[in-house]
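Practice problem 4.
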């Protein structure tokens, strides 16, 4: 009898599991009296298992709080004569772990009746006729944020990474550091076009246009030398002293100085100096941008944003190719091409001035919890609310070891060796698995397939567009598929592609005229396979892991070491690639890179952990235990 009266009053099938997973109901007064007088167990005695299955759905269905007509039940402790029932509210109970949920069929049902819904809607902001006098009006569903619902003690929210992202604030904190990568890509894209324009007696506009091979190499490598110098300085101490925000501002100033100097260069020495200054900007930007993005982005979209930064680099390369195409035949066009990035550098400087310091850097330097909270709120916007946000702020302050930082020497302590190996190995394998060789010979591969040799810029634009598309694929799926699957799959395809290119090169070198067309076509397919696989694996994810896996105390030094490794290995491979090809032949070189791809696959499988959806503090705990 009591159970029927409770059901009739509440219009919902109550179960013990349901009661355990909610605070004291702001029940209609009659139901509170019944439960208080007879006890929950007795009131529910006699209910069938079928009723239990349906009723538990109300508490456990992940869709229950989304029902538009079901009111929020943010229960207060209404006064009860003799019972003290304590648990989480219904909406919080919808966030319980999977093992406490009922079967799938049961979740499809809801225990609320239309009568109860109507009654609730009628008493939206007032006091229900069936509420006691000391019950306040309840907020409606639309007025409540489900992320504010308290969990059961000891429970962990399964939706902590589903807090809505304020894209206006998060996007602003992303786009300006990413511009640092865009300017790096621009330099890659314009170098060959500017050099061709500079060394032509028709378009140079100078009397020092006739450059010997050493002078040409000096112009090309000056920016790389600057990047290496800046990376070393950032790794030793400068990056940690400045913080990623000020380091990006320094990079913007060097970008502007370098671009302006190149455009106004009166001599070869002036051009080389401008290239070196621009390279310093590249080094500081590539050190600071991954750090700033990883330390400010919400964990649910951190992979997307850092991978999208790679998209900015590829976009800059593509814009550089287009710019090189635009100045063909234009006298002094190299000056316009090399100096035009100064406007973008100015935009980077202005944009970074509007952003706060990294909240984790503030905590590292001994900032108060309130300072950390304010900085994080500025880059997170409206999503910077709720218990999850508060816990993240407290974790930043607790794990930063306020006022203490570690230098390069501390990287070799036992707890840091694992993340150090992972970070350095991925950027090293990024360079020694064939990227320079494949891109260097891409034009020859297209020519063998019948492509017009006079349209070399067209080959570059085609590959640039394809790289941009495949980077978009990585950006879309890096936070759903994860880092490890993309890395393993992408590197596997790269390894296969370089083996195919080796076989095709050997066939073409043997002079097999009958199979030459098929072999040439297979080479083109292999080039696209390699480029596409690189852009969904090493391209974006190497830098993503570099920004994620290092402990906060040594992050600046570690990212500097990774950046230095990347540029240093790039320099060494570029320097010795002609010698390697001369020694092993083109086919042998491809086979060598394929074997390095196999080593990279094994290393990634054994050492790289999955980091999607985790905060930097959680990753640090996982990597250093």
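Answer key:
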């Amino acid at each position: 009898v009591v159970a029927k009266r409770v059901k009739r009053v509440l219009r919902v099938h109550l179960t013990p599991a349901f009661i355990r997973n909610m605070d004291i109901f702001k029940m209609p007064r009659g139901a509170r009296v019944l439960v208080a007088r007879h006890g929950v167990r007795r009131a529910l005695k006699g209910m069938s298992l079928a009723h239990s299955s349906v009723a538990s759905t109300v508490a456990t269905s992940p869709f229950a709080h989304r029902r538009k007509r079901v009111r929020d039940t943010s229960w207060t402790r209404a006064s009860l004569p003799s019972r003290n029932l304590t648990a989480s509210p219904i909406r919080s109970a919808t966030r319980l772990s999977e093992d406490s949920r009922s079967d799938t069929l049961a979740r499809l049902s809801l225990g609320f009746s239309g009568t109860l819904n109507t009654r609730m809607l009628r008493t939206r902001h007032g006091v229900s006729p069936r509420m006691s006098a000391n019950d306040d009006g309840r907020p409606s569903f639309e007025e409540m944020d489900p992320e504010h619902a308290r969990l059961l003690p000891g429970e962990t929210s399964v939706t902590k990474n589903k807090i809505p992202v304020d894209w206006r604030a998060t996007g602003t904190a992303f786009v300006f550091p990413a511009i640092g990568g865009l300017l790096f890509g621009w330099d890659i894209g314009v170098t060959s076009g500017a050099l061709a324009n500079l060394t032509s007696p028709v378009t140079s506009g100078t009397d020092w246009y006739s450059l010997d091979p050493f002078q040409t190499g000096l112009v090309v490598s000056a920016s790389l030398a600057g990047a290496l110098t800046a990376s070393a300085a950032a790794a030793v101490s400068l990056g940690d002293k400045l913080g990623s925000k000020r380091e990006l501002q320094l990079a913007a100033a060097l970008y502007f100085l370098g671009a302006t100097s190149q455009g106004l260069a009166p001599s070869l020495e002036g051009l080389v100096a401008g290239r070196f200054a621009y390279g310093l900007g590249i080094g500081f930007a590539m050190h600071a941008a991954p750090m700033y993005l990883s330390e400010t982005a919400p964990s649910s979209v951190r992979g997307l944003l850092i991978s999208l930064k790679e998209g900015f680099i590829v976009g800059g390369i593509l814009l550089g190719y287009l710019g090189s195409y635009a100045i063909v035949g234009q006298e002094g066009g190299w000056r316009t091409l090399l100096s035009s990035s100064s406007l973008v550098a100015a935009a980077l400087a202005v944009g970074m001035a509007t952003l706060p310091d990294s909240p984790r850097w503030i905590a590292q330097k001994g900032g108060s919890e309130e300072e950390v909270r304010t900085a994080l709120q500025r880059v997170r916007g409206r999503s910077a609310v709720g218990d999850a946000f508060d816990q993240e702020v407290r974790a930043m302050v607790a794990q930063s070891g306020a006022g203490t930082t570690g230098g390069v020497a501390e990287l070799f302590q036992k707890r840091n060796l694992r993340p150090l190996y992972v970070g350095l190995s991925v950027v090293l394998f990024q360079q020694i698995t064939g990227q320079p060789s494949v891109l260097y010979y891409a034009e020859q591969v297209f020519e063998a397939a019948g492509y017009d040799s006079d349209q070399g810029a067209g080959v570059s634009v085609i590959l640039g567009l394809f790289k941009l598309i495949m980077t978009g694929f990585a950006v879309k799926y890096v936070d759903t598929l994860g880092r490890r699957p993309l890395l393993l799959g992408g590197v596997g395809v790269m390894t296969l592609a370089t083996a195919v290119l080796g076989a095709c090169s050997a066939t073409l070198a043997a002079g097999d005229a009958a199979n030459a067309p098929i072999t040439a076509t297979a080479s083109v397919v292999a080039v696209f396979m390699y480029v596409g696989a690189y852009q969904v694996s090493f391209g974006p994810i190497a830098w993503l892991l570099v920004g994620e896996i290092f402990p906060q105390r040594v992050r600046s030094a570690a990212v500097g070491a990774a950046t230095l490794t990347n540029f240093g290995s790039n320099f060494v491979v570029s320097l010795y690639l002609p010698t390697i090809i001369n020694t092993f032949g083109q086919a042998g070189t491809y086979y060598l890179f394929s074997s390095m791809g196999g080593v990279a696959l094994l290393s990634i499988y054994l050492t790289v952990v999955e980091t999607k959806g985790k905060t930097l503090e959680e990753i640090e705990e996982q990597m250093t235990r």
